[in-house]
């Protein structure tokens, strides 16, 4: 079984895994980072989203062998209560999640988007987040939070 | 700090109190108040009384530091219920809100209050917690009276400190009185468990005019831990020696494995098959290996006649299927005779498909069997019932099973969580190891219990003046309880059904919940048999507001149809026949807030092409709550696409505990209701369900979110609080349908209103 060394949240992490094993399982089971969730395994929902080199990607369909030297950042690496990312801060202020299982997708995607788009309008925000899923129907809160974060950023 | 505390999952309740620094004062067996021990020793003890509904200690504990633990036998499915429960407990106890910790849904620390069920978290669960907290305060003040040598009526309580009125220096805190010991106080239990459990003490709760904490918009403290990745879901729980399981379901529903080639997975580390009748699972040491094993395992399935048909034939099937049970409810007058005298009869029929819970993640469960004790970590809404189900499924005494609820990947009723718990239990017993099972997406969406499909026939008899003299409404559909509302019986879960347990399904549907007064009125329901009697991906079950959206889509669309037929404004038409003053109030409040213009639908000034706008109203009751919704929609006549642009919701659930939580709950209901109305439909063919992921079972996208949802929260502090978890999803579909009619003059009578269907309706 091949060995891989990945850069995750600024640390070098090593694991033995099949080349086709999705990054999601390495993060959750080998590195103990529970924040990216299994939602569909099909890149349809976003619950597993992490950043690789600043881009929001779906870790459920990204093979560990494809990560290479890419810098992986999970929700746990995005910010902390002491030093929150604006999207996290806005998420708390707007009390967004209900069940909360979807939040990796929205927060990591919004963070990557706001990094590239400083003053987005509502339509641009919606387009950037299109395709992500929230089953509890917190759409209104999500939009309020991302708009709030855009103003903070 | 009041947050959703799950530490009880690793620490027993007894230890939890010790960890909190408890002074353990053992006075042995419970003692009566009139013993020589004195009141303080009689009311509190170091030995924990049995975890039983008639013990105050089963609901409330004061820790050594004076903080309060509230043990709650219901749980929060994401709407912040525990905040409201904490508010009710803090209010009655006169402690600061932040000093109350609500510990939910662990069978080791709470009694069975029914789990999350029917929007009763506050209505029934909170009612009990309020009474328990009031009793705890009464007892604590009695204890303080003895300690301070003053009559109880001369004492006041502020933030958990009891002091003499007029001499604040003479004081004692709750922590000093009982901290770390247990209440030894019996309650007047009604001998019911589940939702109906009620066990008040001698105390009367506060008057609403005295409230300081109830009614405040207190925010949730579980949000930040989730956002900063510090909060675990039930999918994240791990125990030593845990292996991973995956289930394998047949391509043709009803077929069972007849030949399993275990050599097909022999190269996968730790891979092993668990098979019993129709039950087929695999386990492996690593999760990805379990997934691969499930994919690679070669299985020969029995040849069976595909049990279903193409979903396009669904409604014809329901129409023709024999009625298994009919319930005529409480008819008023003589409908049949009244129709014979009618000047005019309005009739319509509506259709609603099977819908999936389609939770954000497929269900997951972990079961560990160790030293004769079974521990289940489950996201099920009803962990106490899960403990019963696991005990029966694997044949162990229920007293040896502890089910610990940990928030799962979403839950809106009887979803796949109970099935996952039973599957994990069977795998854990077969392998002798702790097994974590998570379903794959196609199993979560394809094989979860479904909201049942139905048709609804409505007719109204009018006299010459256009008055409604008779109304008849009959629903016919699959039962909402093909499988039970909880997993307490093997007959109600896939693991039980697939291993051959006889079924015990019953018939259940419902009737419109409204207060329209017609001289002759009949609202009835009929059920038809399930298409496959066991192990079915189309088994009817409870999905958020069970059968409410279906029934009220039809009944409230029909009210609009009758209003249009007589040329009446839809609001005025409803007000003419509504009886309940609270119903009248919500209809008026929603209309007023929305700026409703009085005129009949459809509007006359819309162009016949392009995008047109319209407004519609619908209303319904649910369990004592009443809600009116005005929807404003844009309809693209070319593409058939609907944008439900604006909602105005008037909501009356009696006394409001937390307006902030209520507003978020309403928003979720409206958006999920819009999703179910515009997009959601389980598709299937003869073999099984074909809507198995987010591409084949689409839900409302963020680009389709409404522009605004305005809430009018009608607070009635003098009325006991009723539910909010579901009532506001109920009338969403009808409000949208009525708005589409207003915009276009076209009536859509089948859900979902997908673009193709809407476009077809225009042609």
The percentage of residues in β strands of chain B lies in 15-25%
Largest interface: A-B, 56 and 59 residues
> CATH class of the domain at 548-762 in chain B, anyone?
Alpha Beta
The first-to-last residue Cα distance of chain A is: 44 Å
Task: Tell me what portion of residues of chain A adopts beta-strand conformation.
Answer: 15-25%
Low-confidence runs of at least 5 consecutive residues of chain A: none
Distance between the termini of chain B: 60 Å
Can you tell me the overall shape of chain A?
globular
How do the strands of the widest beta sheet of chain A line up side by side?
2-1-5-3-4
Number of strands of chain B: 29
At the first level of CATH, the class of the largest domain in chain A is Alpha Beta
- What is the structural class of chain A? alpha+beta
Q: Which H/E pattern describes the elements of chain A?
A: EEHEEEHHHHH
Major sheet: arrangement of strands of chain B:
12-13-10-21-18-19-20
Please characterize this protein's 3D structure.
The complex is a heterodimer of chains A (153) and B (763). Chain A is α+β, with helices and mostly antiparallel strands. Chain A contains six helices and five strands. The termini of chain A are far apart. The mean pLDDT of chain A is 97. Chain B has 763 residues and is of the alpha+beta class. Among the domains of chain B are: 4-210, Aldehyde Oxidoreductase, domain 4 (2-Layer Sandwich), CATH 3.30.365.10; 240-308, Aldehyde oxidase/xanthine dehydrogenase, a/b hammerhead (Aldehyde Oxidoreductase, domain 3, Alpha-Beta Complex); 548-762, Aldehyde Oxidoreductase, domain 4. In chain B, helix 3 (81-93) runs parallel beside helix 4, helix 10 (383-394) packs parallel to helix 11 (417-431) and helix 14 runs parallel beside helix 18 (732-744). At the A-B interface, helix 1, helix 3, helix 5 and helix 6 of A face helix 6, helix 7 and helix 17 of B.
């Amino acid at each position: 079984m091949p060995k891989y060394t990945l850069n995750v949240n600024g640390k070098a992490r090593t694991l033995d895994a099949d080349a086709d094993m999705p990054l999601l399982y390495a993060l959750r089971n080998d590195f103990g980072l529970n924040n990216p969730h299994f939602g569909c395994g099909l890149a349809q929902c976003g619950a597993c989203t992490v950043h690789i080199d600043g881009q929001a990607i779906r870790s459920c369909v990204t093979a560990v062998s494809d990560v290479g030297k890419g810098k992986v950042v999970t929700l746990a690496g995005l910010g902390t209560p002491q030093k929150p990312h604006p999207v996290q801060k806005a998420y708390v202020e707007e009390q967004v999640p209900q069940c909360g299982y979807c939040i990796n997708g929205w927060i990591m995607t919004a963070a990557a988007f706001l990094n590239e788009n400083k003053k987005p309008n509502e339509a641009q925000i919606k387009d950037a987040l299109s395709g992500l899923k929230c089953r509890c129907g917190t759409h209104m809160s999500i939009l309020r939070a991302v708009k709030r974060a855009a103003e903070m950023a | 700090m009041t947050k959703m505390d799950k530490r009880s999952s690793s620490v027993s309740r007894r230890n939890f109190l010790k960890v909190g620094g408890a002074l353990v004062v053992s006075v042995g067996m419970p003692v009566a108040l009139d013993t020589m021990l004195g009141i303080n020793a009689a009311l509190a003890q170091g030995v924990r009384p049995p975890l039983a509904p008639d013990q105050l200690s089963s609901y409330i504990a004061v820790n050594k530091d004076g903080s309060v633990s509230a043990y709650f036998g219901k749980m929060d499915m994401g709407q912040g219920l525990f905040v409201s429960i904490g508010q009710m407990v803090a209010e009655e106890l006169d402690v600061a809100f932040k000093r109350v910790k609500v510990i939910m849904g662990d069978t080791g620390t709470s009694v069975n209050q029914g789990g999350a069920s029917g929007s009763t978290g506050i209505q029934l669960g909170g009612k009990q917690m309020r009474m328990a907290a009031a009793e705890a305060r009464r007892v604590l003040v009695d204890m303080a009276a003895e300690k301070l040598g003053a009559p109880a009526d001369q004492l006041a309580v502020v933030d958990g400190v009891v002091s003499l009125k007029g001499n604040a220096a003479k004081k004692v805190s709750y922590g000093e009185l009982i901290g770390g010991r247990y209440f030894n106080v019996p309650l007047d239990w009604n001998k019911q468990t589940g939702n109906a459990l009620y066990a008040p003490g001698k105390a009367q709760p506060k008057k609403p005019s005295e409230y300081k904490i109830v009614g405040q918009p207190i925010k949730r403290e579980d949000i930040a831990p989730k956002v900063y990745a510090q909060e675990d879901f039930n999918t994240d729980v791990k125990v030593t020696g845990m292996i991973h399981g995956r289930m394998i379901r047949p391509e043709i529903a009803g077929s069972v494995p007849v030949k399993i080639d275990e050599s097909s997975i022999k190269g996968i580390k730790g891979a092993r098959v668990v098979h019993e009748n129709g039950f087929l699972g695999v386990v492996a040491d690593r999760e990805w290996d379990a997934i691969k094993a499930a994919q690679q395992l070669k299985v020969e399935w029995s040849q069976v006649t595909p049990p279903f048909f193409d979903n396009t034939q669904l409604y014809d099937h329901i129409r023709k299927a024999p009625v298994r049970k009919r319930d005529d409810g409480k008819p008023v007058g003589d409908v049949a005779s009244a129709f014979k005298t009618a000047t005019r009869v309005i009739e319509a029929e509506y259709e609603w498909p099977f819908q999936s819970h389609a939770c954000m993640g497929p269900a997951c469960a972990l079961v560990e069997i160790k030293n004769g004790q079974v521990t289940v970590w489950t996201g099920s809404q009803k962990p106490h019932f899960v403990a019963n189900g696991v005990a029966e499924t694997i044949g162990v005494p229920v007293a040896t099973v502890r089910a610990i609820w940990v928030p799962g990947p979403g839950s809106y009723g009887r979803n796949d969580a109970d099935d996952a718990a039973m599957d994990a239990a069977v795998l854990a017993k077969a392998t002798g190891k702790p097994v974590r099972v998570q379903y794959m997406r196609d199993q979560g969406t394809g094989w979860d219990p479904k909201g049942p499909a139905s048709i609804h026939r409505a007719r109204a008899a009018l006299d010459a003046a256009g008055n409604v003299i008779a109304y008849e409404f009959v629903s016919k559909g699959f039962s909402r309880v093909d499988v039970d509302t909880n997993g307490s019986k093997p007959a109600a879960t896939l693991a039980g059904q697939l291993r051959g347990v006889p079924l015990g399904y019953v018939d259940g549907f419902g009737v419109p919940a409204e207060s329209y007064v017609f001289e002759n009125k009949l609202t009835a329901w009929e059920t038809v048999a399930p298409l496959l009697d066991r192990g079915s991906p189309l088994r009817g079950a409870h999905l958020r507001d069970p059968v409410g959206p279906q029934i009220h889509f039809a009944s409230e669309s029909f009210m609009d149809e009758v209003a249009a037929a007589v040329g009446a404004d839809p609001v005025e038409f409803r007000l003419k026949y509504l009886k309940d003053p609270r119903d009248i109030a919500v209809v008026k409040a929603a209309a007023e807030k929305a700026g409703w213009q009085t005129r009949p639908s459809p509007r006359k000034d819309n162009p016949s092409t392009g995008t047109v706008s319209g407004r519609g109203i619908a209303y319904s009751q649910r369990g004592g709550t009443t809600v009116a919704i005005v929807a404003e929609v844009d309809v693209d006549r070319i593409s058939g696409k609907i944008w439900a642009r604006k909602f105005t919701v008037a909501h009356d659930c009696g006394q409001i505990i937390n307006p902030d939580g209520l507003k978020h709950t309403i928003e979720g209901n409206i958006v999920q209701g819009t999703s179910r109305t515009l997009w959601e439909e389980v598709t299937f063919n003869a073999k099984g369900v074909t809507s198995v992921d987010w591409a084949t079972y689409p839900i409302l996208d963020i680009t389709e979110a409404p522009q605004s949802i305005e809430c009018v929260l009608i607070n009635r502090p003098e009325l006991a609080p009723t539910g909010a978890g579901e009532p506001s999803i109920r009338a969403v579909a009808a409000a949208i349908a009525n708005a589409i009619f207003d915009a276009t003059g076209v009536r859509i009578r089948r859900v979902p209103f997908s673009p193709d269907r809407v476009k077809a309706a225009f042609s």
